[in-house]
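Working notes for the structural subgroup meeting. M.R. asked for a predicted model of this chain before we commit to crystallization trials. I am recording the input and output together here so anyone reviewing the notebook later can reproduce the run.

Input as submitted:
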Amino acid sequence: MSRPDLNLLITLDVLLAEGSVARAGQRLRLSSSAMSRSLARLREATGDPLLVRAGRGLVPTPRALELRELVRQLVQDAEAVLRPAKKLNLQQLVRTFTLRTSEGFVENFGPGLIARVSEEAPGVRLCFVLKPNKDSAPLRDGTVDLETGVVAKTIGPEVRAKSLFRDRLVGVVRCGHPLSKGKMTPSRYATCGHISISRPGLELGAIDEALESLKLERNIVTTVGGFSTALSLARTSDLIATVPERHTGILRVGMHSFRLPVATPELTISLLWHPRMDADPAHRWLRDCLRAVCSEQLARSS
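Returned structure, recorded in token form:
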């Protein structure tokens, strides 16, 4: 069996990225005819057309879409192998990392992470962006370096995940609220006014399922988009906010929190990143920083 020409992987990577023989040729500094010959060889090697004409352009076949991420990763791994390794100098490191997190995470763990990063690598900047959904595309395309949250079934199978801590849902009301005194029962909890948090992937359905088994239903008065808004409303009203306990510790200061009177599964908050960043020394250092900050802060608060 003849060995495959591994140079074709680079050609395929560029072709799939550009979706154009002409633009791929420009990037690789090859003529259009040379690129066309390479595409013909790739079609023969894979047994698939890979790119087919649609109007004036080319579109990838299902097989090409299937190969795109794998080929990109193989090319990046090969480039990393052939690149001299540099020892990480944190004092000289100048870089901006983008972290996508849910409400409450930055308030609770951001100050500690920023302080640690500033001390160890003063040239590093952290950019925190809100997490509106569980789409893993920002990790794949590199617009986000790290993400925190509950691993969803819809997340890309290639995404790496490392557990940060386990959390549970708690009820939260203002100080002096009637629910801040006396025994909490499912009936008392359900009949009071509730704030529902409508966020894709937020596992609050377990509460309603547990109440339904008792023939009870939450009295939902209003719906908001995040933990911070829910807690702000609960702080100045008689409504109940139900939020993750550890995720919202600082946001709940000055309020009364209580264990839910029904059983709900624990949540595992994880750190997520794309595998192409596995071997990046600076990225690995930041992952270690974040895990250490979470561990230290939770140990102090327990």
